[in-house]
Amino acid sequence: TRFLSDVVDQLALSGRLSCFYAQYREDGWGAAAFHPGMMVKVLLYGYSNGVVSSRKLAQALEQDVGFRYLAANQTPNFRTLSTFRTAHSEALLALFTESLELCREAGLVKLGRVSLDGTRVQGNCALEQNRTRAKLEKLVAELLASAEATDRAEDAQYGMELRGDELPEKLRSGEKRVEELQAALARLNERRDAMRAEQQEVVDAWKKRSGRGRGRRPTDVEKVDLPEKTTANMTDPESQALSTRRGWVQGYNAQAMAESGTQVIVAQQITQETNDVHQLIPMLARCEEQAGARPEMLVADAGYWSNENADEGDGEMTLLIAVPARPKTATSPPSDQYQEMQAQLGKEENREAYAERKSTIEPVFGQMRTRGLRTFMLRGKRKAG
């Protein structure tokens, strides 16, 4: 508790918490706010102990000695805590980078060997709230028909000119429901349009190869569409249905990169991608952004394997990615990148380095779950991340 308090105080003295002060007035107007430094201490201490609910944080400020020490016996209510967290979500994320700088100064982060992995995290949403396009269209039609029927009934009751009274709460909720359903439909259409735009580039390239096109004709743009079972979530529209070992969850794919030995997280972000293969390059960029440089060695499992990812290895960074087993029926020879990575993984020193991956990154996720950090409390990719 005291260590965390001292760390935040040092960050404040060095001006690294200035982003938390920008929203507050200094002209004497308005009620006095709780000190941002104290609020940061409470949130960080809560997160490190698995207390993420604003209501449970408010309760702990009254009952837990550690929280009372950090807050100097002040008791902001749960709404104040929630508002502070939401208003300063970007600043709290930046605090991760500041913490890494302190770790570097203390010699805990050297960016030598790091391990990369991802885990599926339940969002603040329900899997059952996913709707296909057909289901959304049916619900919209039903609600619009209900609204039209209500209008006709009110016309008969009040006449064509009189408004009568305000619409009942049920109907007002129905109107909002229509807007939500139509927005969900729009999101599915945006995804379909993006796929069609990519296919149009394929068709255009095919046409350019000769007057009428050479090779097999690509699929017509109009025939490109999302699978019928593609859904949009009504609770958190940005979340995705993700497969895990224990079944499906509605949430986000959380990525983390941790240093071997210390298990200090040197880069993190969440994504809506359902797999990890496209996350290696963005996470290397994230490491440069958050930790200040690329690591000397990056170790990742077969979920990150691709020829493009393998090309990220160079003279300054050694890259070890487990290669998936080739099917026995494969007729084409393995790519140069595949063969080179197999050779790299076959070296004794690299086998030992890869063997440390599980004891580096997987415990990081395990420790989070042990502390109760199993779901995101806020909705939307920006707030969850």
Describe this structure in words.
The protein has helices spanning 2-13, 36-48, 54-63, 65-71, 78-87, 89-105, 133-158, 169-208, 280-291, 307-310, 336-346, 348-355, 357-360, 362-370, 381-384; strands at 113-122, 130-132, 231-233, 240-244, 247-259, 265-271, 297-300, 318-321. The chain is built from 15 helices and eight strands. Helix 1 packs across helix 2 (36-48), helix 3 packs across helix 5 (78-87) and helix 7 packs antiparallel against helix 8 (169-208). The longest helix is centred in the middle third of the chain and has 40 residues, at 169-208. The strands form two sheets. Strands 1, 4, 5, 6, 7 and 8 form a six-stranded mixed beta sheet that branches. A two-stranded antiparallel ribbon has the order 2-3. It is α/β, with parallel strands linked by helices and 385 residues long. It has three domains: 2-105; 113-124 and 249-384, Nucleotidyltransferase, domain 5 (2-Layer Sandwich); 128-233, no CATH class. It starts with a helix and ends with a helix. It is globular and about 75 Å long.
